[in-house]
Structure formats: C-alpha cells, structure tokens
Amino acid sequence: MTTIGTATTLGRKSVVQTLGGAPHVSNRRLSLSKRPTYFGLRRISGDLWQHAASSLAPRAVNKGKHSCVSVCCASNAAKYDHSVHAEVVQTDFVVVGSGIAGLSYALRVADHGKVAIVTKDVAHEGSTRYAQGGICAVLDASDSVESHISDTVVAGDFLCDLRAVKMVCSEGAAAVLELVDMGAEFTRSSSGDLHLTREGGHEHKRIVHAADMTGREIERVLVEKALAHPNIQFYENHFATDLVTVQEGDATRCVGIDVVERATNKDIRFVSAVTMLASGGAGHIYPNTTNPVVATGDGIAIAARAKAHIANMEFMQFHPTSLYVEPDENAAVSRESVFLITEAVRGEGGLLYNAAGERFMPKYDSRLELAPRDVVARSIDDQLKKYGDKCVYLDITHKPAEEIMEHFPNIAAHLQHSLGLDITKDRIPVVPAMHYTCGGVKTGLKGDTSLPGLYATGEVAYTGLHGANRLASNSLLEGLVYSIKAASASTKYVETNARQSTSLFENAAEEFYSREVSIPPEDPKAVKYALNVLMNLRRKLQATMWENAGIVRSNTRLLDAMEQVKRLRMELEAISAEVDIHSLATIDCELKVEHFELLNLFTVSELVVVSAMMRKESRGLHFTTDYPYKVEGERRPTVINTPLKSARKKIRRKLTLNRSGIGRELAQ
C-alpha cells in the first residue's frame, strides 16, 4: 500500500503523465523540460474529470485515446547510471483485470467517464478464458430461481449471505441473455434454444455453455466490445503492485493504484476517482492449480496491505478432476497450471473409479459423482491416501461417442494431443487441484469495500454468494451480476465525491513524482541468482501450503504452515539484503514482478492460514481433523479487519497457549 503523506515506497523521479480526455487535449502527450504545474480539474463535455492543459496543446504528440503530461529528467551521473522513468495517469475509473468481471464493469462505466483497464498479461488472458463448464441461468420452465437459490445455499454449506444469493440468482438470467444480445455464441439445442446442461450440486439443467469453451467465447465478446469503446484504454502487460490511499481525518480513501509496465520496467501511478479490483484468484499458492499463471492473489494481497477487510480465505476450492500427468522433475512446476476436466463431464454421466477399477463415490455420498466439489475432492483425496495411488479415473466411455465429442471437443483434443487418450474409449486420469478462491476482499451488495473509492468484483472478492463452497458455474455469473451492480454504485460515487477531492488526487500525483531511487549498474549474474532464489522460495511456499493448508487440515499443520511461511519471509529478507533485490529490480522487470508476486503469495498464504485457524469447525471446503463437525455457533464469515501482522501474532499466541482451541477475536 502507498499512503500519501504518511509513508513512501519504491518509486522514482522523472516522468509524470496525466490522463484527462477533454476534446481539446485528447490523444496528446506533452513533453516539458521541468516539473509540471498541476492544473485544476473540472467537468467538461460529459466526462467526470478533465485536466485543463490546453495552454500546453501546441507541444502535444499522439498517445492513444488519452491525453497526458510528461516530464523527463536527466539522471544525475553521480547518483544514477541511466535515466529513470515514471508516469502518473489520471482517469475516472481504473480497472485491474480483464476477465468477465472487469470487462463487464468497464463497459458499463465507460459511458460515464474515461476507463483504464490494467491487465497483467494480454487482454484476453485470465481465468475467464479457461472456464469450460458454463454460466448459470434459470431459463428452463421446469427450473426456478428458488431452486437455484437452494442449490447455491446447500453447496455453500449454509454459510452464504442470502441477500447476495437471492440477488445473483434472480438477476442472473437477464445478465446472461445480455451476453447473448452482445453476440456470445452459446451452444444451441436442436430446437434453436440455448442448450442447458447440469453440473454437480444442481437439481436442474441450467448451465449455459459454448461447448466446453464457454469462458473463451465470453472473453471474445467482451474484449471485442471493450476495444471498440472510445472511452476504454487497455494497458496490457502492466502489473499492479499497490493501492494508493489518502487519509481524510480518521478515514482512508483509495485514489488509485501503482503498477509497473512490464515492457519498459516503468513505474506508473494511476490516479482515479474509482479503483475496481477484478484481478482474479490466488491458485498459485499451491503447486497444483487449474488457474492461469497470472493468478497469484495480487488483488487480495494489495487490498490487505491497504487494510481493506478480507473474508473467508480459509475456503479454497479444490476442483476434484484436474488431468493427472506424470511430473517432470525439470519443469518449473511452480509456474505451471494443470488442465481442468470440467464438472460437466460428471454432469453428463461421468463416473469415478480408483486404480483397482472400483467405483468409490457410493461409499461417500448419496449424490455420488454429482456431490458438491468439496465432497468429491475429499473423497478422491481419501482414496489416494488410503491406497497410495497417484490418481483416480474419470470414465465417460459408456456414453455415445458422438455425444461426447459434441459436448467436449476441447477436452478430447487436449487429451489426444498430450497423452494420446481417446476419451470415447479411455478413462481419464484425474487428481484434485486448487481451482477457486471463495474468499477475498469483502464487499457489499454493490461491490463496495471497506475503503471508499475501492470496489471489487469476481474471484478477487468475497461477496457472500459462495459461502463455504462455490456451486459449479456460479463464478462467471457472480462476476457478471456484481459488475453491473458495482457500475451503478461507483458511477454515483464519482458524481458525489470526485469534485470535492481535487487536492487529494493532486497530492497523490505529487507524492509519486517526488520519489527517488538509485539505479545500480547492470549485473546479469546477480539478477539470475536472485530469480533462482525467488523461484525456489515460491516452490517451498507452495509445498508448505499443499501439505499443511490443503484439502485436509489440523491445528498442528496450520501452526507449522504459519511458522514455515514466517521462516520463508525471513529467508527472503536476508537474501534481499545480500543481493539488494530492490535495487536490482529497477533494472530487471522480470525480477521486479517475481519479487512482488512472491510477496503477494506470502500475504495470501498467511490470510488462508490465519482464517483457517480462526474457524473452529469443519464446513464446506474447510476440513480440519481437530474440529471434524459443523458447529452452529461458527456459522458466520471469517473477517480479518486488522493488519495481517497483528492477526498473525494474535492467532499464533492463542494456538501456542491452547492447542485445543483457536480464538475468533479477529472476526466480526
């Protein structure tokens, strides 16, 4: 977190860029030979914020859709070895993430102001693109909103916020049909209607899908719409590092976000009336995950550092059926994602067998293969530990081959290419893998967080919809519905608050401009060594979390996880001092990103462990051998609303003094 007036973080003095958007300054970049004057902000031509820099217009050059003011200062040869670059970009809305949540939100607010979409990779990369199964919508006459509500609450093990569930289930169909109107080409039945399938935990067929590549189709439509909107600017390959906050008396307000441009290693501060986190989950705190490589919990971590409230981080969903592949000892496993075998395979009749050829789900749950994900994942985990096997097998070969190929063409092609398997004839080797973060930045029904000016939607957020376990295909729906709600609320927030905060935004830009940092000589060997160290620490962290805070937990394991994460942090600090990673990161962007990602993984891992320690029961995705049953008194969200460092100390002290019970003082 960067707090204006109270703290400073890494930064550099030399370039300031201000984004406005008035017709007379649009598409302009202004080069000055000295520090710029901060001009007054005003409302012009329908834009919520404008930067009045018309007097500088004759020196403008083209810079995309937005105008900017920049300053380039030559390096002091005695202190720096080369020029240092930084920018400040001013906009109405900044969105971190370009999946269904971020893009849906951006398209809504873009009619009310300028929008900057900051995305860690290319625009279409993220969890949405890899979603296979589909998106829920109550569209069939035999189905009902009440049934969808019931299925969601049961899957969430009765920990859901009923207000959130009712809102999403009631408004879901209209939101999905809006995607159809935008041009999403979902699979149709022979009658021409949207084809609906069923997945685990659902009483009815209500999953709208595009074969087994639903997320890719949704992402295609939304990216195309966003690229075509004149008020939306993409900033691809920009990595968010911290929120920017200001103090207003006792209150803290978010006024933007700091990022690094990966192509140039340039530090950029986005100063905005509204910051929307839509950055996805945190799958890579574990070694086995279906999440894309960008899912390192960045949004959750930076919000936690800014002291935003975080909730229900103990509930990490492990998808029961990811493709098992023999491990490659030479591969960088800490950065790889496993291939997901969608829930829909079981929804269409797929059966689970152990290595001995025995169908085992009848031993665990009356719902068999269609039990909720937490039940199926623990059942598979129990089979693997009981018999020492590496995987179990998913069998859909009893279904007609034409039907299999029609519904699952992407899975069939991937398995044929990677393992030489024919899913119409061969069983699929599967194991559980971390899949979805049910907790996150705590929000209200309109995506608002505990920090004014900061909103969150999608997997990065805890909305209360999922409770202790997410129902299949509710994730895309949540991101869609909450983005619509957040767009309406945040637009009103800008109109109400923005014009009263001119000085706060100017101070945020001024503070960023005034920072300085020394640049060391280039040292490729030191950079390579530092990168290897960071990757090794990442692997150790992932192994610790898988062993001690994975599918099955205990007080002893969780305490061990906390101590090991603490030791790994200390190891990072020692090595950082030894090779000066902070300085090396100023000359190597890969190192800078790896360093920030590791810090974020540490933060999210600690949030998971602390939250798990706070819950004295087993519920949904959280199963602990010390408290194997549900407890009615524990049926409430786990909220961390104090600095994480304080939370760790309280939990460690409680658990060390009394191994038989863990306090919940940190929860509201």
TrEMBL record:
This protein's GO CC annotations: chloroplast
Residue ranges constituting the FAD-dependent oxidoreductase 2 FAD-binding domain according to the UniProt record: 92-476
GO MF annotations in UniProt: L-aspartate oxidase activity
Pathway: Cofactor biosynthesis; NAD(+) biosynthesis; iminoaspartate from L-aspartate (oxidase route): step 1/1
Primary localization class, coarse: plastid
Keywords: FAD, Flavoprotein, Oxidoreductase, Pyridine nucleotide biosynthesis
Any GO BP: NAD+ biosynthetic process
Record family assignment: Belongs to the FAD-dependent oxidoreductase 2 family. NadB subfamily.
Record-given protein name: L-aspartate oxidase
Upper lineage: Eukaryota, Viridiplantae, Chlorophyta, Pyramimonadophyceae, Pyramimonadales
